[in-house]
């Protein structure tokens, strides 16, 4: 079993959790991904979080990837795990079961 910290960088997901919890992965919140192409601060924060993940040997998933341009920018920063509407919109429970049975 692996423990994943969701919405990293927002709310209660403080840096102290990175020390205290036996994490394998954390997910950078979509609020930092949404404007990554136009907001230098969001890009800098995303890069810093990725650098931190790499230094700690943690995997990281970028949430909220909606465009190919966002994915390409994040890939250029060294990130290769993504989640968002670019790949598949949110599914109902029934549709999710169907995708599990026949992913393509």
Give an overview of the whole structure:
The protein is of the alpha/beta class and 104 residues long. It has one domain: EAL domain (TIM Barrel, Alpha-Beta Barrel), CATH 3.20.20.450. It is built from five helices and three strands. The protein has helices spanning 15-20, 30-33, 40-55, 68-76, 93-101; strands at 3-8, 23-28, 59-62. A three-stranded parallel beta sheet has the order 1-2-3. Helix 1 (15-20) links the parallel strand 1 (3-8) and strand 2. The longest helix has 16 residues, at 40-55. It is globular, with a radius of gyration of 15 Å. The chain starts with a strand and ends with a helix. 16% of the residues are buried. The mean pLDDT is 85.
- The computed structural class is alpha/beta
Question: Largest beta sheet, briefly?
Answer: 3 strands, parallel
Radius of gyration: 15 Å
CATH H-tier superfamily? EAL domain
How is this structure best summarized?
The chain is of the alpha/beta class. The chain is 42% helix and 15% strand.
State the main characteristics:
alpha/beta, single chain, TIM Barrel, 3 strands, 104 residues, 3-stranded parallel β-sheet
Summarize the SSE layout with pairings.
Layout lengths: L2 E6 L6 H6 L2 E6 L1 H4 L6 H16 L3 E4 L5 H9 L16 H9 L3
Parallel strand pairs: 1-2, 2-3
């Amino acid at each position: 079993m692996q423990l994943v910290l969701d919405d990293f960088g927002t709310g209660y997901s403080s840096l102290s959790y990175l020390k205290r919890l036996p994490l394998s992965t954390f997910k950078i919140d979509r609020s930092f991904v949404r404007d990554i192409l136009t907001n230098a601060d969001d890009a800098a924060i995303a890069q810093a979080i990725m650098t931190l993940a790499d230094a700690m040997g943690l995997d990281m998933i970028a949430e909220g990837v909606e465009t190919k341009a966002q994915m390409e920018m994040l890939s250029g920063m060294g990130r290769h795990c993504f989640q968002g509407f670019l790949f598949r919109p949110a599914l109902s429970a029934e549709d999710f079961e169907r995708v599990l049975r026949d992913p393509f």
